Amino acid sequence: MPKSSRILIADEQHFNRLRIERHFNQLGYFAVAPVQSLEELLILVEYASEPFDLLLVNAAMAGGKLDLLDFCLDHGQLDRVLIYDGQQAQLPAIPTQKPRKVQVSHAVLPDPGMIHGLMAAPI
């Protein structure tokens, strides 16, 4: 993905957002927007002037208020999505090895290797 890719991180935990953003910054990606609530996520996605190239979202963010997997699959403003900590939300793992719009990881937090793989994979 180009270094100008628009990246959205959605996690309720401030430390998690910072940690993920730091991984992107170390790879040279700086167009990163962190959000801390489901409401912020929905507003940014719904009213964005341009699609987000990548959304990383903690599966617990939906809190039973939204079918996160369906939302991400169906929304045109999201080019690619990684839902992490999917086991907590009882989502099936969708491997990150093959390019697809939505991937689900049971990892509690994306590590640098996972983020590097996401950014290197063809769209």
Structural class: alpha/beta
Query: What percent strand?
Result: 15-25%
CATH class category label: Alpha Beta
* Tally of individual helices: 4
CATH topology: Rossmann fold
Rg estimate, integer Å? 13 Å
The outline comes out as globular
Q: Could you give the order of the helices and strands?
A: EHEHEHEEH
Q: Write down how many β-strands occur, each being a DSSP E stretch of 2 or more residues.
A: 5
> Oligomeric status of the shown chains?
single chain
Helix content range of the residues, please? 25-40%
Query: Separation of termini?
Result: 8 Å
Structure commentary:
The protein is of the alpha/beta class. It has a single domain, classed as 3-Layer(aba) Sandwich (Rossmann fold). It is 32% helix and 16% strand. The protein has 4 helices and 5 strands, in the order βαβαβαββα. The protein has helices spanning 14-26, 38-47, 68-74, 112-120, and strands at residues 7-10, 32-35, 54-58, 81-84, 102-104. A 5-stranded parallel β-sheet has the order 2-1-3-4-5, sandwiched between helices. Strand 3 (54-58), helix 3 and strand 4 (81-84) form a beta-alpha-beta unit. The mean pLDDT is 89.
